[in-house]
Design a protein that fits this description.
- The protein is α+β, with helices and mostly antiparallel strands.
- It folds into 3 domains: 6-52, Orthogonal Bundle (Helicase, Ruva Protein, domain 3); 59-198 and 245-276, Tetrahydropterin Synthase, Chain A (2-Layer Sandwich); 203-243, GTP Cyclohydrolase I, Chain A, domain 1 (Orthogonal Bundle), CATH 1.10.286.
- It has helices at residues 6-16, 20-29, 34-52, 82-85, 88-103, 109-114, 122-133, 176-192, 204-220, 228-243, 258-264; strands at residues 59-67, 71-79, 116-117, 120-121, 138-146, 149-155, 165-171, 249-250, 253-257, 269-276.
- Helix 3 (34-52) crosses helix 7, helix 5 packs antiparallel against helix 7 (122-133) and helix 9 packs across helix 10.
- The longest helix is centred in the first third of the chain and has 19 residues, at 34-52.
- GO terms for molecular function: translation elongation factor activity.
- Its main location: cytoplasm.
- It is found in: Cytoplasm.
- It holds the Pfam family EF_TS.
């Protein structure tokens, strides 16, 4: 019989998250060698990863970090269940993945998955950690925003879960007023779900589609032909107010737009990104 103790079993379970029987079997196969037992559990889990490929990873978390107040990173990482998503091991994995993006200054998921982590691609590292968690794990999205000042805001939609919504807002000034405004706008964006920073960022085909819908709707409502251009323009502008951050009525004071709030603070928006888990 392999030489190991109850304390070894407990330590290995805490280290890997594996079940009691799996831990005992791994220690038996490794003749009590702790490191070899960890390796055996990882190998078993990685073999099972192929079976999990088709599963949906719709839960997870969003996390963010700002470096020197001027460079922000936002990451979404997914798991299959909220049970795993709120576990310490999953949160630690997300922190590790984000740290790789920050330290290596990576802004895209494809490059992040190829980044070196302890001599192996991050994609392999995530697969190994997913094996210990027993669920499919997906590094879904990564974004980077830069400016004179960058604010990061994370929002929890449930008390017992990690943040499900994350926002980065970059502005072109670093005064106290600009910092406060940037934070207020980040909180606003978390609640109001803008899709674009400015009208110029809205794809032309999207605008044309909204214009077509506005025209067809107006004709179906039998609006007078002479009023049609003004009605169409008004409805397209309403689309911009719903979807463009700087054009949105500010949540704390709807009489002002977000652009006006920033202008009053002596700044303007340079960049913005918003993630919501699964959206």
């Amino acid at each position: 019989m392999a030489n190991y103790t109850a304390a070894d079993i407990k330590a290995l379970r805490e280290r890997t998250g594996a079940g009691m029987m799996d831990v005992k079997k791994a220690l038996d196969e490794a003749d009590g060698d702790f490191d070899k037992a960890i390796e055996a559990i990882r190998i078993k889990g990685i073999k099972g990863a192929a079976k999990r490929e088709g599963r949906s990873a719709a839960e997870g978390l969003v996390t963010a970090k700002v470096v020197d107040g001027t460079r922000g990173y936002l990451l979404e990482i997914n798991a299959e269940t909220d049970f795993v998503a709120k576990s310490e091991k999953f949160v630690a994995l997300a922190d590790k993945v984000l740290d790789v993006a920050v330290t290596q200054d990576i802004a895209e998921v494809e490059a992040l998955l190829q980044a070196d982590v302890d001599g192996k691609p991050l994609a392999d590292f995530v697969t190994e950690e997913a094996a210990l968690l027993g669920e499919k794990v997906v590094v879904r999205r990564l974004a980077k925003v830069e400016g004179a000042f960058v604010d990061a805001y994370l929002h929890k939609t449930a008390k017992d879960l990690p943040a499900q919504v994350g926002v980065l807002v970059a502005v072109d000034a670093d005064s106290a007023e600009a910092q406060t405004a940037a934070h207020d706008v980040a909180v606003h964006a978390a609640a109001m779900s803008p899709q674009h920073l400015t009208r110029d960022e809205v794809p032309a085909e999207t605008v044309e589609n909204e214009r077509r819908i506005a025209e067809e709707t107006a004709r179906a409502e039998n609006k007078p032909e002479q009023a049609m251009p003004k009605i169409i323009e008004g409805r397209v502008n309403a689309f911009f107010k719903d979807n463009v951050l700087v054009d949105q009525p500010f949540a704390k004071d709807p009489k002002q737009t977000v652009a006006q709030v920033l202008q009053t603070a002596g700044t303007s928006a340079q960049g913005f990104v918003r993630f919501r888990v699964g959206a």
